[in-house]
Design a protein that fits this description.
The complex is a heterodimer of chains A (762) and B (49).
Chain A lengths: L1 H10 L2 H29 L8 E3 L8 E4 L4 H4 L12 E3 L6 E8 L1 H4 L9 H12 L4 E6 L7 H13 L4 E5 L21 H10 L3 H17 L5 H15 L7 H23 L3 E5 L22 H14 L2 H13 L9 H13 L3 E3 L1 H7 L19 H18 L14 H7 L4 H14 L15 H4 L4 H13 L4 H15 L2 H14 L4 H13 L3 H11 L7 H14 L2 H12 L4 H17 L7 H10 L23 H12 L3 H14 L3 H13 L3 H15 L3 H13 L3 H14 L5 H10 L6 H4 L4
Parallel strand pairs in A: 4-5, 4-6, 6-7, 7-8
Antiparallel strand pairs in A: 1-2, 2-3
Helix pairs in contact in A: 5-15, 6-10, 10-13, 11-12, 17-19, 20-21, 21-22, 22-23, 23-24, 24-25, 24-26, 25-26, 28-29, 29-30, 30-31, 31-32, 32-33, 33-34
Chain B lengths: L1 H12 L1 H22 L5 H5 L3
The chains are: A mainly alpha (762), B mainly alpha (49).
Chain lengths: 762, 49
């Protein structure tokens, strides 16, 4: 045999030898490439692209975050699915695209998607910039840290973001690949980065599976309970990371390197980054573990000292000691001061916008020290905290003028009113409560190995909503969406439209891409007499191209009441696309009426001819145009507004203003803005009148009475530009108005030095 | 056909030459996997429910 081989060696020509050598060098690589292709074609392994085509046909042309991306970072562990935010595969020029990076706080833990801060912020920006299409894509996954964020970054940049928002830092030690999570003797951030790159290869995944199977032979603990028990006992033993230890330094260095790479990459690609410092509970969470080390006292000593100082009113000392207690806590679920220092330094170095969330939280906390007032436990904001976190980014984004030079003052809501009208209900709050209560029965809040308590077994729900929340969370018998639906339908049947609206509105924030819940919410708003909001929700229901006769027809009807006939025609025409014969005839009548009001009846000749054929004896009715939009007073403020209107009639402006201002605390409405503006005008407080009438403009710009008030107020504040625009609007909507001539004369003879001579305060 | 037979003979004799890189690559993969293995604690804390 050996002879034969030797013989064949000799027989090879020199050329063949060279060719064979090249082939043999390439062979391993050809083999690996072929294997990779075969594995991909056969569907073996996992696609670890950050974004994938939306699987639903209705959303063709959209991308969504890969629901299985978590598998890349948490191979055999449970991981939370990311939010299903969608964005267009081909980015149009008029879209402003924002990606948000972070972990559990950004996911909204302990609440559901409607209360995650990127969704709150998306809605807030939508109000502030109604003319902009804003895509807000939340890429956060619970328990990831800067290694995962750095791994996401190139793929996020591929999707042409206009801005990236980052809130991250608490998971640097115990998150995926964190310094306190690595079980290997040799820790190398470079190897982690190589591993994450290789994880995109199916061959690598195959090798990983083999290694896992081999190690599985030696570790036969398979049940989830056993796994958890084993893990918890190991955690309790190994989780300690003292301040300044090698593991501590490693975690801090990892964070600095990864975040530095992220920010440098964004800078290189000219993408604006908004990065926030991170907030933790200082006052109401005792250090999880206290180990004195060298000259340093144990964290608990600092915590107790802080409590004493706070009691004595020595707030600065209290704050210093609370910070030390947090920084020296050996169980590092709360980011230390070093993390916040790095965030600030890196933001400055890379021209990123620093978002001072900590300052905002401090200023909203007693003695300027954050505790349970804004956080649910050690790091996650409660509902008020989630709104504040969103507000913190909102302020920096609007201040940066990145989206537009100015926010729209007519549509931007006050922070308070925005929160009142945002979609969440008591059910969401209870979901968070149950998650947190359960969390606090476990390590690190309690030593569960000594005295295990199953919250699910001991809790007795209080009332229907609580029972539903408990079933959603602990028993998992129904989903949160089903629970909201159940409550919404129950309230609607009872005629409790306000609570039905709250439940459906929560569903629109949980599922912002489905038209159905927007229509249901709009129905409730119609019952509540809130036409502006109902119109907004009907319009949102068709935003993603869903053809709905009902939504467009209702929107058209509201526009008719508002006297916005152009828009009414648009909606009625859209509604025809999905209408049967009767519905089509109904919309044709409406279109004809709208055209008549616009003095364009000639364009309705075809409609006229159609009905003349169907019903020759009955011409299409066109009732006289009216201004009835003011008659629709939202139910929440109806009593106060009606009372205020009575007071206005008897010229008791002081009390009327009081009532109207009180109604703004319940809900800001266009009708109240208008009434406030008109009363202030009558009181000759023109600046205030202008402020409120301006806010009413989008809703009442088709109402001649309103335009009159707005015109006179504009003159009273010497704002001739607004007066001129108002006159143009009046000419547009009512060219035959007798006031046009008078207004023109007033405007032509306007004397800024003698305002009272120009205006009519009656 | 003759070419493939000769190539096969060539590869059979010089296994180290082409199998070694493959083994090295696979070993490298295995080492990275071992050295980056870890159990993140945070997901266990937040995914109890």
């Amino acid at each position: 045999m050996k002879k034969e081989s030797a013989g064949s060696k000799q027989q090879l020509t020199k050329n063949r030898k060279i060719i064979f050598s090249i082939i043999s060098v390439l062979l391993p690589f050809l083999f690996l490439i072929s294997l990779e292709i075969i594995l991909r074609i056969s569907g073996s392994g996992h696609n670890h692209s950050l974004f994938v085509n939306h699987p639903d046909k209705e959303f063709e042309g959209y991308q969504v975050m890969n629901p299985e991306i978590g598998r890349k970072y948490f191979q055999n562990m449970e991981y939370s699915a990311p939010a299903k935010d969608i964005f267009l595969t081909e980015k149009p020029n008029d879209v402003f695209r924002i990606f948000v990076m972070g972990s559990s706080t950004v996911v909204g833990f302990p609440y559901e998607n409607n209360l995650m801060f990127p969704r709150i912020l998306g809605e807030r920006l939508r109000d502030a910039y109604p003319d902009k299409k804003i895509e807000m894509v939340n890429t956060a996954i619970t328990a990831i840290n800067s290694f995962t964020l750095a791994d996401f970054m190139p793929q996020i940049l591929n999707e042409k973001p206009d801005a990236i928002l980052i809130y991250a830092g608490h998971n640097e030690f115990y998150g995926a690949f964190g310094a306190g999570s690595n079980e290997a003797m040799f820790h190398s951030p470079t190897l982690i980065r190589i591993h994450l790159k290789l994880m995109n290869s199916r061959v690598y995944q195959l090798v990983m599976k083999l290694v896992g199977n081999i190690s599985g032979i030696f570790n036969s603990n398979n049940s989830a309970g056993e796994k958890r028990g084993t893990l918890m006992s190991r955690i309790v033993k190994d989780a300690d990371i003292t301040y300044g230890s090698d593991t501590y330094k490693e975690g801090i260095n990892n964070y600095e390197q990864n975040m530095s790479a992220i920010l440098a990459l964004a800078k290189k690609n000219n993408v604006k980054v908004f990065i926030s410092d991170v907030v933790s509970n200082l006052r109401d969470i005792k250090p999880f573990k206290s180990i004195p080390s060298g000259e340093l006292k144990g964290a608990e000593e600092y915590y107790n000292a802080a409590k004493d100082f706070e009691l004595k009113g020595e707030i600065q000392k209290a704050n210093e000691n609370y910070l030390l207690a947090r920084d020296y806590d050996c169980i590092r679920f709360r980011a230390s001061s070093d993390i916040n220092r790095i965030i600030k330094e890196l933001a400055d170095k890379n021209q990123a916008s620093f978002v001072p969330t900590l300052d905002l939280f401090n200023s909203n906390s007693p003695n300027g020290i954050v505790g349970d007032n804004l956080l649910t436990e050690h790091v996650h904001p409660n509902i008020t905290g989630a709104f504040l976190l969103s507000e913190s980014f909102y302020k920096e984004i609007t201040h940066s003028k990145l989206i537009a030079p100015e926010v729209n003052p007519e549509t931007e809501k006050s922070f308070k009113n925005f929160r009142i009208t945002y979609g969440y209900s008591a059910l969401d709050s209870l979901i968070g409560k149950h998650r947190i209560t359960n969390l606090k029965y476990h390590w690190p809040f309690r030593d569960e190995s000594k005295d295990y308590i199953d919250y699910r077994e001991i809790y007795k729900p209080k009332g229907k909503t609580d029972s539903l929340a408990f079933n959603v969370m602990a028993k998992q018998k129904i989903s949160l969406t089903e629970a909201h639906e159940y409550l919404a339908e129950m309230y609607f049947k009872k005629g409790d439209y306000l609570n039905a609206y709250r439940e459906y509105n929560s569903l629109t924030k949980m599922n912002p891409y489905w038209g159905f819940y927007f229509r249901k919410t709009a129905d409730c708003l119609l019952k509540l007499n809130d036409l502006p909001e109902a119109l907004r929700f009907f319009e949102r229901s068709t935003e993603y191209g869903e053809a709905s006769f009902y939504a467009h027809f209702r929107a058209g009807e509201i526009c008719m009441i508002k006297n916005d006939f152009e828009k009414a025609i648009f909606h009625f025409q859209k509604s025809q696309l999905n209408a049967d014969k009767d519905e089509k005839e109904k919309t044709l009548i409406k279109i004809y009426q709208a055209l008549s009001y616009l003095n364009r009846a000639a364009e309705g000749k075809e409609i006229e001819a159609y009905f003349a054929k169907v019903n020759p004896n009955n011409p299409i009715p066109v009732p006289p145009k009216t201004n009835t939009y003011m008659d629709y007073i939202p139910a929440q403020v109806k009593i106060k507004v009606l009372e205020a209107q009575k007071l206005i009639d008897v010229k008791d402006y002081g009390k009327a203003l009081g009532l109207l201002t009180e109604s703004l605390e319940i809900k800001e409405t266009a009708i109240v803005f208008r009434l406030l503006g008109e009363v202030y005008y009558k009181n000759e407080e023109y600046e205030k009148a202008q402020h409120f009438l301006k806010k009413a403009y989008p809703e009442f710009k088709f109402d001649t009475n309103y335009l009159r008030s707005w015109f006179m107020t504009s003159l009273a504040t010497s704002n001739t530009d607004d007066a001129r625009k108002t006159l143009e609007q009046l000419k547009k909507i009512d060219p035959k108005s007798p006031e046009i001539g008078t207004f023109q004369i007033i405007l032509n003879n306007f004397n800024p030095n003698n305002i009272n001579a120009n205006i009519d305060t009656k | 056909m003759e070419f493939l037979k000769e190539l096969w003979q060539f590869l059979k004799i010089r296994k180290k030459f082409w199998l070694l890189p493959l083994i090295i690559v696979l070993l490298f993969f295995a080492l990275i996997i071992v050295f980056t293995a870890g159990t993140a604690i945070a997901p266990f804390i937040y995914s109890i429910f």
